[in-house]
Amino acid sequence: MNKNEIIDFLSQLPLPAAHFNPSGEVVYLNNAFTKLLGYTKADIPTVEAHWSVFFPDVAYREKVQKDWVTMLEKSAKSGVPIQPMFLDIVAKNGEVKKLEVHSLQMGTLAITMWIDFTEKMKAEEERRIAAIAFDSEAGILITDSDGVIIRVNKAFTRLTGYSSEDALGQTPAMLKSGRQDKAFYQRMWSLLLEKGFWHGELWNKRKNGSIYAELLTITAVVSPDGRAKNYVATFSDISQSKAAEAEIHRLAYYDALTQLPNRRLLQERLGQALISTNRSELYGALLFIDLDKFKMLNDTRGHDVGDMLLQQVAERLVSCIRESDTAARLGGDEFVVMLQGLNANQIEAVAQAEVAGEKILATLNQPYLLAGYEHHSTPSIGVTLFSGNLSSSEELLKQADIAMYQSKTDGRNTLRFFDPEMQTIVTKNP
């Protein structure tokens, strides 16, 4: 083939191709070449020029040149044609193309052709990444547009106990624990349909019936027409972190011995109660309870026995109040009961607080069984009422504490109100 015949052949070739003469000048670049890489003959006038154009990275260029020389020498010695090379070639727009390069020698004429594997290799890489991701530590399930499960990964089975055979054809409802209500799932799907994405925490159930906390992400796979074709759910078991979080909360807000709320939680609840009573205009009450002669028990029977008494007192206090009320331990043998939702009339509220206090007095006066022997303990109780946020939680605790000391002064095992007028009301209405 002469020069013109080669050019005519290359011009009709769908593959990118170039023709060089023996002196290394570029004779012809076909349209497919320019379309793929963007270069024209003006950009690459010679074979020598193409090295820095195709391979701007010096280290990679030197490697390719070395491999090319080795290939030429091997071909010259063995007489076999030059073997194709897979190369990363930089196009004019800066995009890296993954090409298979074929070099042919036709007499004194050289022809080079490129086969583009960029998209194929990119797709393979994406599939490889997807395969690795699908077999990750996170559980993955994929549903169709109707929410029917069509695929799960190994981590799904490990985390839920359900095999792929168990799950395929089912819906994620198979994992429901019952801890979230219908409204929760309605909000979830509403956000998912609106934004194509949902992320949050929920409780699900394994095949063996155990409940676990889950961090879940659901993503919609949308087709070009805007409709969701699939939903991909990725989740992890966060039960341990939730348990640790609960333990941290317990240590921060609850007394370790009695499991009652501690001072910190009591003050938070009291602050909320002050705001609530300000709106409702109902009264609340604080009862400060101190165990009489508790130190004597500790000194004679030991702290272990003293702790038993404190635990039983805590149980009895809880039995005396409503769910809306709070029994707390401040420390030592000091307890506080907060009553909420008392009458809006002050006199009636005083009477209600007295009834609650007398019930606590009677309950705590019952004998205790401590390490095999019967023990009798009495409390001294101080009471203060509150309504609105005129007083701080600390002020109210001080008032109840003062009233409690008045109770001790008056002979112990009694109940006294902080306000002298309220105490008068109690005395006149035995």
Characterization of this structure:
The protein is of the alpha+beta class. The chain has 3 domains: 118 residues, PAS domain (Beta-Lactamase); 108 residues, PAS domain (Beta-Lactamase), CATH 3.30.450; 175 residues, Reverse transcriptase/Diguanylate cyclase domain (Alpha-Beta Plaits). Helices cover 45% and strands 27% of the residues. The protein contains 15 helices and 17 strands. The strands form 4 sheets. The chain has a 5-stranded antiparallel sheet with strand order 2-1-5-4-3, with helices on both faces. It has a 5-stranded antiparallel sheet with strand order 7-6-10-9-8, with helices on both faces. A hairpin with a 2-residue loop joins strand 12 and strand 13. Helix 11 runs antiparallel to helix 12 and helix 12 crosses helix 13. The chain is rod-shaped, with a radius of gyration of 41 Å.
What are the key terms here?
Alpha-Beta Plaits, Beta-Lactamase, five-stranded antiparallel β-sheet, 430 residues, 15 helices, alpha+beta, 45% helix, 17 strands, 3 domains
